[in-house]
């Protein structure tokens, strides 16, 4: 199978590398991303542990493991294929310049014979960690090499039965390649064992994101204050509010929730999914047309501006709009109820962050792809409401009288994390 893939990619290389970018703007942007310094920090020649991540969610899954290994003076390499994770990866490399090497995953410029254009030739780790379902053949081929241990994190197979025969055959072969698997949920673990016949001694269940989320939320106030210097004033104001509702990762098409939402006696905040001017303008225009005041919070909001907005908010309800990157995880700790966007599109966004922050969660119906939803529903189903329409969301939020309620950790003082990590990297 791998040889067939290599032959196809060799034939397609000139087209993907030189022809497609000529006609496609998105392909040109992708190629520009891949052609930036091909190998970051080539001074680190080899590593013991290799990780591949394709999204911010996957980076959060592996981050606690990577950080633990770096603190233990281990050598690590990360291969990533999304611009969204580049900043965090490079920031981590600056902290550990003598231990961490990075590479952008070649897709358009993938050339089987090239050292820098085929990650199979670049990776050096004795352990290769993949996440979810990023089964690039060149990565699997490297993981199958003698002396390399292939490990899957956040393995999700709940929708396996819905796949066609060829996809099932391919996925089954992929899953059977792994030496250890961390399933996303207990249900996924059962499917791995019962349907895919994966030996039970190869599988455990753990969500490494909890470790990272709790670390961030433990220092939530300090993190936000470092970005919003006037946040102390807003925090003190929030302490006086009876009901605090936040819309996290909100999309434009979900704004109709506010058409009939009763904003009286509620402090309402929005953290949009996209913070570019185009999407922010849509949000501002919507509330302007509906004569609902907006209180914008940015990194430049001064104490005087914050005091003025608080005074205006005390006179009547409005919407607090956070235009600040990288603080949503921390913001949840200051609210009682969280609506999480995406459920009326392809899939809901992360619900673990508001869950561990103690929020009651409301979301749309598209949850099939979310292992986080299944995890919460199996642990504490009363904490999350899945609604089939935006009108139902509005009605639920109108009736919301929840109070922030802390969730007891599954990872008491890091003991579970350390136990699982030791199991993963022990000699197999």
Task: Explain what the structure shows.
This protein is of the alpha/beta class and 428 residues long. The protein folds into 2 domains: 218 residues, 3-Deoxy-D-manno-octulosonic-acid transferase, N-terminal domain (Rossmann fold, 3-Layer(aba) Sandwich), CATH 3.40.50.11720; 180 residues, Glycogen Phosphorylase B (Rossmann fold). Helices cover 43% and strands 16% of the residues. It has 18 helices and 15 strands. The chain is globular. The two termini are 26 Å apart.
Explain briefly what this protein structure is.
By secondary structure, the protein is α/β, with parallel strands linked by helices.
Mean pLDDT across every amino acid position: 91
What's the Cα radius of gyration? 23 Å
Number of strands: 15
Examine the secondary-structure arrangement and name the CATH architecture of the largest domain: 3-Layer(aba) Sandwich
Question: Could you name the CATH homologous superfamily of the largest domain?
Answer: 3-Deoxy-D-manno-octulosonic-acid transferase, N-terminal domain
Across the major sheet, the strand order is 1-4-3-2-5-6-7-8
Helix/strand-derived category reads alpha/beta
Largest sheet: 8 strands, mixed
Oligomer: single chain
CATH topology grouping of the largest domain: Rossmann fold
Q: What coarse outline follows from CA principal-axis ratios?
A: globular
Structurally, how many domains make up the residues?
2
| Strand coverage percent | 15-25%
Total of DSSP H or I helical runs spanning 4+ residues: 18
Distance between the termini: 26 Å
Sequence stretches where pLDDT stays below 50 over 5 or more residues: none
The helix content is 40-55%
CATH class of the largest domain: Alpha Beta
